């Protein structure tokens, strides 16, 4: 039986076999432009349809002070609503964005945090979301994802990465206050988005990189003691309200995967198979059918340097391991990079579209 995107995704998350594995899309703007040029189209929604992508991400509108670039941190030059300043890093193939300055790098007290000019949820307009979802679902229902935000990453962005990690050891009250302020904001915006859309959102996604190629960037003990609660604020309440939940982190964070599952997490992404402990076989052995995996198609070696046949074989192999009874959403292990051959990208999506359980 042919399923629509929503049915396909929900079946996979619930470990029921869909008609084929669901497909996600994660790529740099340069890759998207290259694909649209290949298909001779100018409409992003049409591109997703041609690739067979089952997810659609919806975004609220920024209506706050003009001095800020909005919440789109990491994709534009300027100062975001948190006061974090972003700069462009241009390479031969692409443009990336990194933090240039952290506004709370030099604070020394909780009082300074309280006095800081924190963003107001009223700066974020969610009134467009319901119509946007209705438009997306007009011909066929998709799996609708709303991004709830990033607590850990935003907190260290405000303070500076090294200083924040040091805070967790020497003055954890500073780190926790930052995470509280950030999670308060994101929780309220997400609550308003849920209310404004009347149940039309399917998945609430939160994100923060806590893993690296060789393990977590902070100890599991520290994460559990100081970060876990604030991470859960964007997972547990929405899970209890009946929404599916997703969490994004690069690298290996298998040491705390059980904690995330206990919070009610349904999907974890993007699954980097070249990181420690995150090859498909190990993930399946460790976590079985307790969580759905999204991603897993390697962007470090396979997609940029393999052949289309290599891609087809590895995509099929990964589905056969992680998605034997559902439980797997096929996507790249991070944003597909501009030096990736177009034929390899097309091979990924064609292989999944043609896969039959």
Describe the protein's architecture and organization.
The chain has helices spanning 5-13, 29-39, 44-51, 110-115, 129-136, 151-159, 161-170, 172-197, 220-232, 236-240, 257-263, 280-287, 302-305, 308-322, 342-353, and strands spanning 55-58, 61-62, 78-79, 85-90, 95-101, 124-125, 143-149, 203-207, 211-212, 215-216, 244-248, 267-269, 292-297, 328-332. The chain has 15 helices and 14 strands. It is globular. It is an alpha/beta fold and 357 residues long. Helix content is 42%, strand content 16%.
Give the structure's gist in a few sentences:
By secondary structure, the chain is α/β, with parallel strands linked by helices. The chain is built from 15 helices and 14 strands.
């Amino acid at each position: 039986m042919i399923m629509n995107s929503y049915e396909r995704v929900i079946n996979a998350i619930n470990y029921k076999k869909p008609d084929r594995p669901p497909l996600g899309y994660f790529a740099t703007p340069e890759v998207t432009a290259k694909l649209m040029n290949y298909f001779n189209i100018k409409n992003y929604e049409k591109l997703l349809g041609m690739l067979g992508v089952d997810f659609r991400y919806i975004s609220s509108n920024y209506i706050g002070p003009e001095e800020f670039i909005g919440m789109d941190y990491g994709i534009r030059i300027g100062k975001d609503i948190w006061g974090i300043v972003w700069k462009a890093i241009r390479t031969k193939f692409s443009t990336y964005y990194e933090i240039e300055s952290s506004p709370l790098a030099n604070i020394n007290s909780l009082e300074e945090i309280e006095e800081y000019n924190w963003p107001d949820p009223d700066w974020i307009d969610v009134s467009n979301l319901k119509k946007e979802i209705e438009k997306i679902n007009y011909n066929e229902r998709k799996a609708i994802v709303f991004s709830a935000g990033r607590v850990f990453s935003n907190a260290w962005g405000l303070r500076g990465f090294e200083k924040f990690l040091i805070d967790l050891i020497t003055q954890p009250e500073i780190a926790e206050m930052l995470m509280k302020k950030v999670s308060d904001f994101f929780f309220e915006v997400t609550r308003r988005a849920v209310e404004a859309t009347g149940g039309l959102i399917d998945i609430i996604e939160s994100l923060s990189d806590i893993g690296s190629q060789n393990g977590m960037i902070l100890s599991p003990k520290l994460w559990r003691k100081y970060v876990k609660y604030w991470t859960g604020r964007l997972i547990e309440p929405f899970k209890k309200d009946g929404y599916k939940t997703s969490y994004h982190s690069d690298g290996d964070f298998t040491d705390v995967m059980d904690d995330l599952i206990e919070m009610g997490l349904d999907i974890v992404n993007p699954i980097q198979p070249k990181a420690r402990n995150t090859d498909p076989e190990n993930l399946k052995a460790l976590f079985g059918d307790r969580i759905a995996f999204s991603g897993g198609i390697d962007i470090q070696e396979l997609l940029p340097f393999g052949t289309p046949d290599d891609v087809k074989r590895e995509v099929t192999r990964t589905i056969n391991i992680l998605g034997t009874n559902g439980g797997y959403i096929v996507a790249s292990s991070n944003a597909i990079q501009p030096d990736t051959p177009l034929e390899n990208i097309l091979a990924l999506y064609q292989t999944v579209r043609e896969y039959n359980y």
